[in-house]
Amino acid sequence: MDISASIMCGRVGALAEEGRLLAEAGVDSIHVDIMDGHFVPNLLFGPEIVRALNDATDVPLHAHLMVTSPGSYVEPCADAGTDVFMFHIEAEPFPLRLMERVANAGMTPGIAVNPATPLDFLRHLSAPYVLVMSVEPGFAGQKWIASGLDRIAEVRSLVSDDVIIGVDGNVSPEKAALARDAGASLFVCGTSSVFRPQVDYRTTVADMRSTLGAIA
To answer: Is there a contact between 199 and 37 (Cβ–Cβ < 8 Å)?
Structure first.
């Protein structure tokens, strides 16, 4: 089980320190949302945030590209120290070619998919990671979309057992446990779990791990 802390939910003015605190709390990875203000209406972060986190911690870094041209971010993200490069299938007309570029740059490719996007493409496309959005991408604090669990189960039925399925969007400990049962093993954690007000990260990460039944 991969508890992946969504750094956009942390203190934006102290992201390197947040990365260190999250690593000390025992997260398995840090999730960095990169938004261009076009693919999604929000504008947030870039490869330099990955670089700052890479300098501050040894925790694996996952870049989630919510951008219209993910290919233009491959080399910058690789140079910054990205471990997993997740791009949206809706934004890329040549996903096989892009996954090859990502792998050649030394990163693991992943595909993110919006809540209303049909999943049949997975019959013809194999990626090490598939990130199922359980909210519309772009903003923290949104309501979980009810179809999320069914979509995780559908992805699980379409991909091989070694594919890591992630879920992103209002992933509370309770929702994470249901997503785990549907086939997910990567949980992008934000304001409903790891980043709870006035609760330290060691406690929130331990709560999530305990609910998932994972061993630290």
So the answer is: no
User: How many Å separate Cα 22 from the centre of its chain?
Assistant: 15
Cβ(127)–Cβ(111) below 8 Å: yes
Is 150 assigned a catalytic role? Answer: no
| Cα-Cα-Cα-Cα dihedral sign, residues 77, 78, 84, 87 | positive
- Annotate 122-163 with DSSP letters as a single string: GGT---SEEEEESS-TT-SSPPPPTTHHHHHHHHHHHS-TTS
Alpha-carbon distances of 59 from 21, 84, 87, 198, rounded to whole Å: 11, 12, 20, 24
Q: What pTM was estimated for this model as a whole?
A: 0.95
pLDDT interval class at 207 (50, 70, 90) = very high
Task: State the catalytic residue, choosing from 168, 181, 200, 207.
Answer: 168
Q: Are 191 and 169 in contact (CB under 8 A)?
A: no
Each residue's pLDDT tens digit, 77-117: 999 999 999 999 999 999 999 999 999 999 999 999 999 99
* The token pair that represents 109 in the structure block: 């490719």
What are the structure tokens assigned to 25, written together? 């709390």
Q: Which helix (H) or strand (E) holds 176?
A: helix 173-182
33 in catalytic set: yes
Q: From the candidates 33, 83, 162, 200, which is the catalytic residue? A: 33
SS3 content of the chain, % helix, strand, coil (to 5): 40, 20, 40
